[in-house]
Write a structure and sequence with these properties.
13 helices; alpha/beta; binds S-adenosylmethionine; DNA polymerase, domain 1
Length: 311
């Protein structure tokens, strides 16, 4: 029998828009920074390289933190502190306040996507799991067991704007209830055979992953929690990889910048300016970066600066 390799490895990983993140967040010597989606530590290493005096790296995935503690380049740097948890809970996870800046680089890491046992892959059979945090929350299988056709369709539509979410939800639940949907391979097959470049199951996997991990809820709760921890003048940058996610970040930033987001004739938006835009137009990876890392192609980076408000 082939021996399983127990060496800790991490897939080749390139951080997205790393230089731009450091520049836009204005990382300075002696500042302290929060990396709310630590992953393989690329952005944290950028903060450290720019002279940060302290970096807190949060990730909900214990295995990403373990891999970094074993082989990460800055694992012995006393300025780097790693903690498991969700960024929406940052205020409960640390007493530290008055951060100079924070980054969120949303979505899963390459290890999660490329390890079939984690249940994210439509190319290989794996369990119906898809949790980024394997120690908490419902697996995809448990979550599907709690849905009816309407709630599943609503979740898929909310996550990706899926046009035929009702039909897809009915088909998924019928297979699930008949016992023919047991693995990610079964799930992929439900979307039909691959024709073009994009796998037909891509949108369905994305929607289910976002629902299982409550990714939009994390963004909704996480942005105000992180802003509370920043000092006035501190900056929050967010990299998104999907239009629903980017629209949500834009909407929340707009609201926090004191703009109207309600589109009603009688506006009821609070119009209290809590942040100012650093870049109103989202930044995208350069052609150079895309050549090195084609996976960055859908990335968008938005950044705001916290404004001092009167007490
Ligand atoms: C795209 S990767 C980050 C890559 C990282 N910036 C780097 O350069 O290596 C996203 C990471 O964020 C984690 N993550 C996603 N949502 C999270 C959340 N709500 N709270 C904490 N970690 C989260 C995932 O587990 C994953 O490891």
């Amino acid at each position: 029998m082939p021996q399983r390799d127990t060496k800790i490895e991490r897939p080749a990983h390139l951080s997205v828009m790393r230089d731009e993140v450091i520049e836009y967040i204005c990382v300075s010597k002696d500042g302290h920074y929060l990396d709310g989606t630590f992953g393989y530590g690329g952005h944290s290493e950028g903060f450290l390289g720019a002279g940060a005096s302290q970096v807190l790296g949060l990730d909900q995935d214990q295995s990403a933190l373990d891999a970094y503690r074993a082989i990460g380049a800055a694992r012995n740097d006393p300025r780097l502190h790693l903690q498991r948890g969700r960024f929406s809970n940052v205020k409960e996870l640390t007493q530290l306040r008055d951060w100079d800046g924070a980054i969120l680089d949303l979505g899963p890491n390459s290890g999660q996507l490329l390890t079939p046992e984690r249940g994210f892959s439509f190319n290989e059979a794996g369990p119906l799991d898809m949790r980024m945090d394997t120690q908490n929350g419902s697996t995809l299988e448990e979550w599907l067991g709690q849905q009816d056709a309407e709630s599943l369709a609503d979740a898929l539509y909310a996550a990706t704007g899926m046009r035929d979410s009702r039909r897809v939800a009915r088909r998924l639940l019928a297979a699930f209830e008949a016992g023919t949907l047991k693995t990610t391979e079964d799930l992929a097959k439900l979307s039909g055979p691959r024709r073009g470049k994009t796998h037909p199951a891509t949108e369905c996997f994305l929607g289910l992953r976002m629902a299982v991990n409550d990714e939009l809820g994390e963004v909704r709760r996480g942005i105000p929690a992180i802003l509370d921890c920043l000092k006035p003048g501190g900056r929050l940058g967010i990299i998104t990889f999907h239009s629903t996610e980017d629209r949500l970040v834009k909407h929340i930033f707009k609201l926090l910048a004191g703009r109207c987001v309600c589109e009603e004739r009688l506006c009821s938006c609070p119009r209290v300016e809590q942040v100012r835009w650093v870049n109103r137009k989202p930044l995208e990876p350069s052609a150079d970066e895309l050549q090195r890392n084609p996976r960055a192609r859908s990335a968008k980076f938005r950044c705001v600066e916290k404004i001092a408000t009167e007490a």
